[in-house]
Amino acid sequence: MKKTKSKKSSPQVKTEDATSVVIGKDVQVGNLENNEPQINRYYYFCTPVYHVNVPQFLPKLREIAEVRLEQHRQEVPELHPVFPIRQTNTLLDEPELKDFFDFVGYNCFQSLVEEGYHMQELAVIFQEAWLQEHHKHSGHDEHVHGYGSQLVGFYFLNTPEDSGRLVFHDPRPAKRQINLPEADHQMASDASTAINFNPKEGDLFFAPSWVPHSISRHVGDEPLRMVHMTLSVNRAEPHHYDTQPPASGPNDQSGSGDSSVTVI
User: Fold this and answer.
1) Following DSSP, what letter does each residue of 115-167 receive, concatenated?
2) Residue 226 domain flag
3) Which structural domain, as residue segments, surrounds residue 199?
4) Integer Cα distance of 157 and 72 in angstroms
5) Domain presence at residue 186
6) Could you please report the per-residue DSSP string of 185-247?
7) Domain count along the chain
């Protein structure tokens, strides 16, 4: 299993301070001219979702995807009529993907540091990484990952028109049980029970594994391809990956050159 641990270095992960969001200027109670109090709203126990577009990893991953998916076609010529999806074996044995896994592992580690976890003497470990090819009407129902998984990741290789969307669901069952009707289902708000993203090629998303997630039905004529990953945390061992902030690579086509991860 691949492991990654961070030294003291400038983090790659940009996070917003969601500990205390004061909106007193926006929420008014009573008549302010009479010096009546304003209400502050604080956010705790938040659910982070991380996103960055890193297209520099696309060429190598697409090349390997073609080989792996062709192997799957040879083994399973016909798609399942109800679940038209192809899923390959692990990609963790591909030495040419080391830069990609280092980038993901480093940023996942830093996200846990930024969230306030005591990560000294701990390491992020890749449990699994595999290719998914969703054909028309394929999707993946809402689920979480167990067996010690701490983080889940998605890297999108091909996102044709009308692709399935990546959906994150509210992880608080008590809130969902008593949720009131939303004023506007088209707007993300505190009342939302799910948030969906329309992924672009080269998009990397990761989030805690306890956040329920799904892929909506893919209705495009061309298949949707992505790498799905799960990562856990364990005690660091002497032979862990020593990952400084990974380089962008020789063929970085990201435009601005900013490959930092933002929290949503």
Assistant:
1) TT---TTEEEEEEEEEEEEE-TT--EEEE---TTEEEEEEEEEE--TT---EE
2) yes
3) 3-15+47-179+193-263
4) 17
5) no
6) TTS--TT-SEEEE---TTEEEEEETTS-EEEPPP--SSPEEEEEEEEEEEE--TT-EE-PSPP
7) 1
* Tokens 């595999």 sit on residue: 130
In a domain, 32, yes or no: no
- Evaluate whether 120 touches 71 at the Cβ level (below 8 Å): no
Asked if residue 124 lies in contact with residue 105, where contact means CB atoms within 8 angstroms, the answer is: yes
The answer to whether residue 25 sits within a structural domain is: no
Q: Looking at residue 25, what DSSP letter applies?
A: T
Q: What is the CATH number of the domain that holds 150?
A: 2.60.120.620
Report the predicted TM-score, pTM, of the whole model to 2 decimal places: 0.78
Q: 5: Cβ–Cβ under 8 A, 6 or more apart, which residues? A: 109, 119, 122, 123, 124, 236, 240, 241, 242, 243
Q: Among all chains, which residue has been given the structure tokens 């992505």?
A: 226
**pLDDT tens per residue, the chain (264 residues)?**
555 554 444 334 433 333 333 333 444 445 556 677 889 989 899 999 999 999 999 999 999 999 999 999 999 889 888 899 999 999 999 999 999 999 999 999 999 999 999 999 999 999 999 999 999 999 999 999 988 899 999 999 999 999 999 999 999 999 989 999 999 988 999 999 999 999 999 999 999 999 999 999 999 999 999 999 999 999 887 544 445 555 554 444 444 444 445 455
Residue partners of 221: CB distance under 8 A and separation at least 6: 136, 160, 162
CA atoms of 154 and 166, how far apart (whole Å): 9
- Looking at residue 36, the DSSP 8-state letter turns out to be P
